[in-house]
From TrEMBL:
MF-aspect GO terms: electron transfer activity; heme binding; iron ion binding
Pfam families (alphabetical): Cytochrome_CBB3
Record keyword Nucleotide-binding present: no
Keywords on record: Electron transport, Heme, Iron, Membrane, Metal-binding, Transmembrane, Transmembrane helix, Transport
UniProt keyword annotation of Cytoplasm present: no
Cytochrome c domain boundaries: 79-160
Name of protein: Cytochrome c5
Classification via InterPro entries: Cyt_c-like_dom (IPR009056), Cyt_c-like_dom_sf (IPR036909), Cyt_CIE (IPR002323)
Transmembrane segments: 14-37
PANTHER family in the cross-refs: CYTOCHROME C5, PTHR40942
Native species: Arenicella xantha
Amino acid sequence: MSETQMNDSTFSRLFIIMILAMTILTITIMVLASLASSGVNAKLDERYEQESTQSIAQRIAPVGTFSAETVAAPVAVAAVPLTGEEVYVSCGACHDSGTLGAPIVSAAGAADWNTRLAQGLDTLYNHAINGINNMPAKGGNASLSDDEIKAAVDYMLERAK
Ligand code: HEC
């Protein structure tokens, strides 16, 4: 009987020691785990904050963005036509020297130009814009406007006096 009691109290003591040991072990593991994860958690928090700030900015951004350059560029191109002198740079290939029988743009061609001018200024404009014989329409540069061609003809008549 006394042997059984001894055994019981030995068991009780062992049992208590084991419970204590397991409790200490559990607490130790919890402390270690929270120490190990605290750095990772801080990084995750930081990233989450960044991402949510970014996505808010994206969601409230305006749908189309306008910059001054995209609006102003085409207007600037259309607003500045070439002067007669600037256009003549491409006419001079024939009209400087009389290539292909072109009337020469200098005093030497004055008589030729006077004869042509007798047809009327509008006819000269028309032939310069639409071409005649070896004279190509717009001197071969279709990107020039009618007004730019007319300015070039005025410039040629001025120089051929
Ligand atoms: C490839 C050569 C060539 C180029 C480039 C050229 N011309 Fe001529 N041009 C001629 C020839 C050739 C004639 C004469 C045509 C004829 O009367 O048979 C002529 C004639 C003219 C005449 C007189 C038309 C008439 O009715 O008598 C005008 C104005 C004229 N050119 C303007 C221009 C202008 C402006 C340019 C540039 C934008 C230009 N030409 C570029 C060859 C050229």
